[in-house]
Structure formats: C-alpha cells, structure tokens
Structure to design on (307 residues):
C-alpha cells in the first residue's frame, strides 16, 4: 500500500493513476481493511459488485466516498487526488484558474473543487489554546488611499469595518493558530471568541486595543510601545503579526478578490497550511484525505451567509 512518501505531482499521478487505486487507498485510510457503514457504524456490512457495500441494519448501499467531499462527484478520483496535492503543497495556495489549467478542466469546476477542499481545512482551525498566547486582529480589504477618488469610503480609517472585514488571530507559541472572521473588533464581538478558544490562566499577550480589556481570567500583558520596546522582550506579538503578513501576501498574490461570505474558508486554508508547515507533503496529503468527510453541495456554497 502507498506509504505517502512522495515529493512531486508526477509521483502522485503515477501512484494514483486509476479510479481503483484511489478507492483502494481511501478504503485503507478510512477502514483499515474493515468496511464501516456511514449509516450505522455498528452494522454488519456486505460487499457487493462494482465497489459497493450494503449496510445490513439500514438496507442502504454505499461506497467508500459516501458522505465525503467525493460523494456524487462526476470528476474522477485521480483528478481529485492531484488537486488535493497541488492545493496542500503550494505554500501560497493556488487559484481556480491555475488549477483548471493544470488539470485540464474548466475554471468553474476547479473553483467548486477548491471550495470543497477548503471546507475540509477547518480541521486545523478552532483549537483550544493555553501556555503563552498572542492575539491580534487583521483586516481584509483594499486601502482607501489606493481607491479612485469616486470610490473612496468615508470614515474607513484604522479599525473601522465599513469597508474591511476583521479576522481575529490567536496563536499559541510553539503551538497552533486559531483564526476567526468577526463582524467587528468590539469587546462584545471578540471576547466571546477568545474565551471560547483560550483557556483560563493563560499568559495572554495583546496590543492596547480596548476590545481586549477586562478579562481577569487571563494573565493579560499589553504591548504598548512597539518602537522603544522598553518592556520585557518576551512580551510581544511578533509571531501572530508575522502570520498575518504571510496570509495577506497569499491572498494578494494568489486571488484577485475574496468575497466576505467565503473569507472564513480562505482563512481556514491559511491556518491549515500554517499549522501543518512542518509536515512532509505526503503526510499532509493523507491527513487531509483522512478528514475529507465533509459533504458540501453547490447550493450550500451559493447560499452561504456572510458572517
């Protein structure tokens, strides 16, 4: 069985050259040789023709792709595997136009595949954090000074969210990043997110934004002066700020624009890439496959609500 040690798209295409090889790999990853019904995991399973299985308790038929992002797809699994490798191995991601050219499919099909893959990236986001945690907000949207005179927006300076979408980042030092799109950066909006993911008694480091005030459950330190650095050199938010720089460069370089209603899944993609940056390509590829049990329909993407 394929061990996941590969370093190029050519090797992926060679190893997963047919539908049957892809199915065998998924069955080994998901079931380790013992089929499990997605309808009743305790049910006995019968193997049928054409790669299908039957759940005894429910009488329903299924395959290894039932209930996953591959379920019901008209795109062959070899193309899916190539797409997953390309998306997870590119440091800054890949656009749907580029993916379409690489795989020989339409841009619309490539966009839908990318969105389904991004829906699975949330497995690395929304982590419980403790120890030393840095917090900071980033804002996605164009700079007002770069807009044409007729398109400038009033009162959009600083943390105003008139034309920008804020993302709250929480980074555990020597640990994982959690990043959540928020409506604004007010105390009532960001503190519930912080309390949800950061454990009490954590050494919590932020800038002096008022939205972080009055959280007595944390050992809260505030970075007030970035220029003189008169405070303890250990008290800083350099790590989370560096993460934001990487994310903004990725969004700017790879995508022309990102709709507000899809911004969270792009953030999830960045978090996945950031948190798995030390993994080898094959390990990261299999990790995503193991967690591909997220079924998203086209109409669900179209009807997604802006946060």
């Amino acid at each position: 069985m394929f061990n996941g040690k590969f370093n190029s798209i050519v090797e992926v295409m060679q190893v997963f050259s047919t539908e049957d090889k892809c199915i065998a790999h998924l069955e080994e990853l998901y079931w380790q040789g013992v089929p499990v019904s997605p309808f009743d995991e305790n049910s006995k399973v019968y193997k049928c023709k054409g790669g299908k299985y039957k759940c005894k308790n429910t009488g329903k038929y299924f395959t290894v792709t039932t209930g996953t992002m591959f379920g019901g797809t008209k795109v062959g699994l070899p193309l899916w595997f190539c797409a997953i490798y390309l998306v997870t191995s590119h440091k800054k991601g890949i656009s749907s136009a580029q993916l379409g050219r690489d795989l020989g499919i339409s841009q619309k099909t490539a966009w839908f595949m990318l969105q389904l893959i991004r829906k699975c990236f949330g497995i690395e986001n929304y982590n419980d954090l403790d120890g030393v945690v840095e917090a900071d907000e980033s804002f996605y949207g164009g700079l007002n000074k770069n807009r044409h005179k007729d398109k400038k927006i009033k009162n959009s300076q600083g943390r105003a969210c008139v034309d920008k979408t804020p993302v709250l980042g929480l980074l555990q030092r020597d640990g994982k990043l959690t990043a959540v799109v928020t409506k604004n950066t007010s105390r009532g909006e960001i503190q519930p997110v912080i309390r949800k993911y950061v454990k009490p008694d954590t050494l919590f480091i932020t800038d002096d934004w008022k939205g972080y005030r009055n959280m007595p459950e944390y050992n809260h330190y505030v970075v007030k002066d970035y220029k003189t650095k008169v405070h303890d050199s250990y008290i800083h938010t350099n790590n989370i700020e560096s993460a934001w720089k990487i994310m903004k460069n990725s969004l700017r370089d790879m995508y022309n624009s990102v709709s507000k209603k899809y911004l969270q899944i792009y953030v999830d993609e960045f978090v996945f890439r950031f948190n798995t940056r030390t993994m080898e390509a094959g390990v990261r590829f299999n990790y995503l496959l193991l967690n591909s049990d997220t079924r998203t329909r086209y109409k669900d993407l179209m009807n997604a609500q802006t946060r």
